[in-house]
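Bug #77: duplicate submission created two jobs. Keeping one. Sequence:
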Amino acid sequence: MSLKTAAAQITFRPRLMDCLAGYDKAQFGKDVGAGVTVGVLALPLAMAFAIASNVPPAAGIWTAIVAGFITSALGGSRVQIGGPTGAFIPIIYGIVLTYGFGNLLIATMLAGAFLLAMGIFRMGQLIRFIPVSVVIGFTNGIAVVIFMAQIKDFLGLRIADLPPDFFAKIRTLASSLHLIHTPTLLLSLASLVFLLCYNRMATSERFTFLRRAPGPLAVLVLATAVTALFDLHAHGVETIGSRFQGIPQGLPPIQLPPLSMDTMGKLISPAIAIAILGAIESLLSARVADGSIDDRHDPDQELMAQGIANLVAPIFGGFAATGAIARTATNVRSGGRTPVAGIVHAGVLLLIVLALAPLASHIPLAALSAIVVMVAVNMGEWHEFKALRRFSNDYRAILLSTFVVTVVFGLTLAIELGMVLSCLAFIYRMSRLTRIERLPLKQHERAPAYVRPDGGCRIAAWRLYGSLFFGAAGKLEVLHDSQEGLPDVLILDMQHLVQLDTTGLDGLSKLLGKLERNQASLVFCGLGRQPASLLYRSGFIDRLGEENLTDNLSAALSRAETLLNRAHFRNLAEGGES
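Kept job's structure:
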């Protein structure tokens, strides 16, 4: 697709425009209630994800506000909630540690540009081509990485910065276990147990009233109260105030991060990782939401909205954002059915920052760590490991390889490896489906009884099945190396050949050349639409001759007889013998 064609096909129509038609007070009330609920839930998650990513908690909040508003206002889903997510933690942590927070903002804007381009060029459907084995592998791997990153704050270890390298991180954590801070550990365990019990009780019919307050908010309030009541800060328990000097009250400074071509070149790879992960997670979240509200989102519009959100959020000090599955599901369960709920959620967060920011200084990091640990446990599809025995070796190898590489080496390499392994497995399976079989012409009522003096057969027919592509083109060699040599006329029955690529075309061209050098002929029958299109466009049919294209095997045999008779009379005219 040319740039001019792509530009002509761009359609930018947010779902908000469709939802406002016929919008009434009843739905507005439901959307406001859902927006308030999701906004309250998003506050502790935004801070927890930011701290886990090694950035100030205020950056997470402003990411949720700005990206959340843009995702709802411009997105392709009616109920998608955007903001920071746990999946980004390993990538963002590594970028901050290697390049610094300022360069994280640049990487986020680059990722936004990539996402916007993906939406413009209608690549929303292509994201679905990523195999489920790769998605499960890196999702579970990310969950493990997130869990490992929380060990420091969960145990109260005084480690300045955990190294991004897996083995160095393990060594650092192991060498620091003797420094476990007991009050922090006890508060972390209590917060985690409370969160587990709260979530389980909220799902039962006896305690439905608990659903009015999200579990993360409840544990945050309770842990903050306990910290203040027992003066745990004086006993060494870290809080947002002690580590980050609290959360600034008011609007952040609006400014572009400093850009340089040298820096941008180094950040291309991390930005691509952010864009791919953001695209996968946002479209996956939108698909899950579609099933809940019986709707269908626009994937290209969603990618464009995510791109704009990631371009704008860094201007307010925010970082990478995408569609959040948990917050989107909460929005649906709370009655949200239009993008208005997501806009209200962003407004609620803004009001909290403007009015209650000073109170955040007393929030203990142990409680936020417990929240992220719970997110890591819930985001992993651990049952898929148990189910591996039911699947093929290819599936197991791809899933486990992606999982291990995500944990040990990082998400970017894991996705690359997973896709390469998936492509190789697909090529191998497709090549196994491609067959070339000899047809027994002697059983055909019209088969000529011509036999060459050397015992070779004058007419031979073969049937092709499947796809003649680069992974299977070598199977044409059986036609070159037949034990009885090349026939005078070779018939290829193509009615079961569904696809032909240029490598397969090259193999057919070499076969035709060998037949021509031996004064032999080639006849096709039952040629399908796609193979025929390529053969015509490449000029192969001009070389073969239209008369050597037939509709079925019977017509091909008639054509073969004609060619043999023509060759016979030509030999007689030249004084030769048949």
